[in-house]
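Protocol step 4 of 6: record predicted structures for both targets in the notebook before any analysis. Target 1:
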Amino acid sequence: MSAPTNQFLNGTAKSNYAANTFFRDALSRLSAYAVLNSIIKMLYDRTLPLYEVWEQTYLAWIGSKGTYAGKTDEWEGVAEDLRKNKYQTWRAAIITAGILPDSPVFKMLLPNGSKYFQGGRYERRTAEVKTFLDQLGALNQSNFNPFQWTVMEALKADVQAFYDKMFAIRNAQQETEKSHDDAPIELENARVALCIMLHRNLGILMDTYPEEPERVNSFYEWILLKGKSKRKNSGDTLSNSAETDDEGDVPML
């Protein structure tokens, strides 16, 4: 004989999307009859706060996925601009200012050439741009004629603006990365708490209707816990009876 289990915990573990549909449906069934039966109202009242926590964390989880993806795309766009455009533009400006590729000053400004401008980890790319900016700031105006110095000043301003943009976007991405990593933990905590409450409710329903198991069963769309729901797309749309407003199998009180 197998040990008793919490079927709500087991049935909602594989898909947050399906879990959300099941929880929403279960609360709706309690709500529909809470005004007619004091026991059901008690179950509804104690379940609602936990469902609200679930709903808030569920929406935050969905939002964190989109925000993180957006910030990552934004960073990758900046990195691609650095690889395809900025390095070549900056290199050309240095040469225009009379600093030839085989000169000591050129090697001081770009000691690694294009290596970390066109590849490498995020932090390494950002550090390479910052090093380039610092080296530009160390140049002495007396070593350049007015035209050359104007070119170098414009170059420095462009590098500064690009670095500030890189730094801001990378920081924003890292902040959303933390939220993205924390959201599943918070959602799981909310799921477990709600499943425990639903299991407790089931016990009271079984005690309330000891000879009418069909009434107990009608409080839950059990098929949603058996993996029968299929997500149509990446959004929160499921093809199941709860989503299509099926009014069958509702509690008879």
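Target 2:
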Amino acid sequence: MGLKKRRVLILTLLVASFCHLTVQAQTITEKEFQAIRQVALNIPEKCAPGECLIIGVGRSPTPFIAYLQALSENYAFNLPLTAFRHFPDSAPVQSLVHNFEDQSRLLPLSPALEVKLFRHFADMIPLEIVGKMKAIVMVDQSDTGLSLLAAASYYRKFLNQKNLAVDMRVVGIGNHDDQAKLLRNSETLQFQARFIGADELSVGRSKTLSSNLVVEHYDDFSQFGEFKIEKHNSPQRGSGKYESLKADLNKWNALDAESSQLKGSVNRPSLFEKLRAQILKAFRCDAALKSKAIEN
């Protein structure tokens, strides 16, 4: 096949891919997808499908859990839990606790609320699945790590009550390199001993993903609404956009895989990148175009 025909063939295939997959995207841009994938794929390094379970605490980790759910069945779960700061015994890092505005939110739950919380845990993540796992990784977007450690501490107590010997690790996703300080603070080393590890992942240089996490943009796409243990008997209903988010993540994933295959078949990568850039410019549904479409 001549070079000119090869160019036409590649261009045609790419146009078809972008028309079918890209233009239909409604929830995220390509840059967002790449940033979400980069963070999400670092979590399985700590948690292998089939041996480990990933639990996203609250609504903040919504895009990462949505991405991971496509990797393997019963691998990642969303756990609705809003503004949770209670610890079953003592909270870590007294300097941070001392500055916390509402000290009552750090105290252990009452026996009745603990029973309610443990019932919520069992409802959201089936015990028959948890019991088959060697480890659990709890994930949350975190500035200090306090909510993540509080949720993990109570889930650890829940597992002990159920006589389930499952290792636990906590992973805080920070907006910047200096965030999630609590997870690295030397004062928490003894507290963290109850877990097999505490790690931080950074969203890196993605300004879009970082700002979206700060303004809680992805809360609107969460599978569930709020669940405040003192207020709600069950999770509030989500907006219904979660499945659309998952579908768009899968579309971008398929597009990325197809692009990689096409790139491998071309002898001149620079040609591929040039064509890809031209088609992206022509067909990408960026945020501005989406906003206009939604308004209309």
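Step 5 preliminary note on target 2. The first strand starts at residue 52 and ends at 57. DSSP finds twelve helices and five strands in the chain.
Proceed to step 6 after PI sign-off.
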